[in-house]
Amino acid sequence: IFDGRAERPYKPEDEANPLSVYGRSKWEGEQAIRAASCRHLVVRTSWLFGPLGHNFVEAILTRARAGGSLKVVIDQVGRPTLAADLAEAVVRLLDAGAFGAVHFANSGQCSWFEFAQEIIRQARLDVPLSGITSEKVDRPAPRPAYSVLDTSRYVELTGHTPAPWTDALKRYPAARSKYARTPDVLSPPSGDRPSLR
């Protein structure tokens, strides 16, 4: 819901300025909840990845295992968030009696390119990776250049500090195996040399 022009992580009270129809729909949903004058909790997150459905981690691994080089955006920065960590955060917030808007994401920040680098590194894949700018990517809607969320209110309310996104990524294979009943995609293949198959 933010336009990405900030130079510091976005706080829940910062002014919203969605760039896309998708962002506007989320913001309008929040406004409708507030207009209902009921006690509510809105948890905003970013760059979500989990064991079910399509996500950036799966896309990078699929393309990397198919062979060839990868080009990934270098000028968009955010905080990757593991779905299981978000679910636990919501429970913590409910237990704390939180209401209003709260931001939750795994700690740290990176570009999509750096996220892809870490995915490939943890999977021990040998794949050429290069960075490109957003203007060279054909996207149906604009995306904010900076979407890092300030999670300090979450920490104050729950007393819990979000895990680093790199640690969350390490836990992704176990989550994927548990919920999707599929192989540990980040686990390196057997043998000395990584397989791209």
UniProtKB/TrEMBL annotation:
Coiled coil: none annotated. GO terms for cellular component: cytosol. This is RmlD-like substrate binding domain-containing protein. CDD domains: dTDP_HR_like_SDR_e (cd05254). One of its GO terms (molecular function) is dTDP-4-dehydrorhamnose reductase activity. InterPro entries: dTDP_dehydrorham_reduct, NAD(P)-bd_dom_sf, RmlD-like-bd. Residues 1-172 form the RmlD-like substrate binding domain. GO terms for biological process: dTDP-rhamnose biosynthetic process. It holds the Pfam family RmlD_sub_bind. It comes from marine sediment metagenome.
